[in-house]
Amino acid sequence: MTATDRFTGDANPYGGGDPYADYRTAGFPFTDLVDLADRRLGAGVIAANDEFFAERENLLRPEPAEFDPERFGHKGKIMDGWETRRRRGASAEVPHPADADHDWALVRLGVPGVVRGIVVDTAHFRGNYPQAVSVEAACVPGSPSPEELLAPGVKWTTLVPRTAVGGHAANGFVVDAGQLVTHLRLNQHPDGGIARLRVYGEVTPDPAWLAALGTFDLVSLENGGTVEDASDRFYSPATNTVQPGRSRKMDDGWETRRRRDKGNDWIRYRLVEQAEIRAVEIDTAYLKGNSAGWASLFARDGGSGDWTEVLPRTRLQPDTNHRFVLPEAVRATHIRIDIFPDGGISRLRLFGSPTEDGAARLAAHHRELGG
User: Fold this and answer.
1) Which helix H or strand E contains 174, and what residues bound it?
2) What span, in angstroms and rounded, lies between the C-alpha atoms of 221 and 360?
């Protein structure tokens, strides 16, 4: 674990106005990676030892934490995060909690992967945040229960050692563990509140599952696809185009600013491995007056070299899922979609299966990580 910009201590009490005006954050080097704890990928907070003031499920809400200074309930101030009761010592003579006392939450990642960075966000927890946090990781196949995860035989590896954090701040940690992770245990010492947890890393799909599927979406985040670059991210991120499911609203896709030149916008993707693509979907759901006018697809087999046209420039309709069966399978490791002249798409799906070499590399990588 490598430290990033470090925030410690209380934030100022809320004084009115914009609750994020004095929020402490920094540019972290890993936030362009996939959030492995994204609810859209199937992540969940499956257990916590205490959630007296605020529910554990708030930790993985995708939007930034909100703060309403007037919102109180029967248990006290209602916070948008996970908040435990105040710990106490064993007696009047020993009123303070022991050094080992702490609260914990178990998090199931949406997809197995290698964790590269973690953000423990204490937004709006100004004087009621934990003194320190730590994070542990385990790799347990299947769908284990909390009891099974906490059983004595399960191996937990420390990703973030016990580290002091600050209130009303994005506390970031670079992780260099190099192992496959399916579950995390987030600990707060001794108690307090955490608004959000983000777990950035690289998806590592189970090759046996992909082999059983045969044909699947080769560029989907949950299957190990990656957005490498994009010409424009003004309104929404290009990674939205490879999220699971169909877009649910306009900002759940990718939309660029309006061009005033003669160029065009594009996204470059890396497939899960070398594969043969046989069918394509380009969806413009919820993009009505701002969908791309036309699109074309190009493929490349390898990290460099020339691009080969897969789908010639084709007219797109607003709010429509377009399906194309390719005349012959296209072998590729990378795909680029060009849209003309600007606008957006909501999803790109590339259906096919890994080549023999691609499948072998996937299996070898999975074994190397302990899968």
Assistant:
1) strand 170-174
2) 20
Length of the chain, in residues: 371
Q: Per-residue pLDDT for 325 more than 70?
A: yes
pLDDT digits (tens, 9 = 90+) for 99-121: 999 999 999 999 999 999 999 99
Average pLDDT over residues 7-24: 94
Query: Exposed e or buried b for every residue in 261-279, given b needs 16+ CB within 10 A?
Result: eeebbbbbbbbbbbbbbbe
The per-residue pLDDT for range 261-270, each reduced to its tens digit, is: 999 999 999 9
**3-state DSSP percent of the chain in helix, strand and coil, to 5:** 10, 40, 50
Query: How far apart (Å, rounded) are the C-alpha atoms in residues 156 and 206?
Result: 20
Q: From CA 111, how far away is CA 199, in angstroms rounded?
A: 11
Tell me, what's the pLDDT at 4? Answer: 60
The alpha carbon of 154 is separated from its chain's Cα centroid by a whole number of angstroms, namely 25
The stretch 89-104 carries a mean pLDDT of 95
Instruction: Name the maximum alpha-carbon separation found in the chain.
Output: 80
Q: What is the DSSP string of 190-238?
A: S--EE-EEEEEEEE---HHHHHHH-SEETT-GGGT-EEEEES--SSS-G
Separation CA 259–CA 237 (nearest Å): 17
**What Rg, from alpha-carbon coordinates, does the chain have?**
23
Q: How far is CA 171 from CA 36, 60, 75, 121, 202, in A?
A: 17, 15, 27, 6, 20
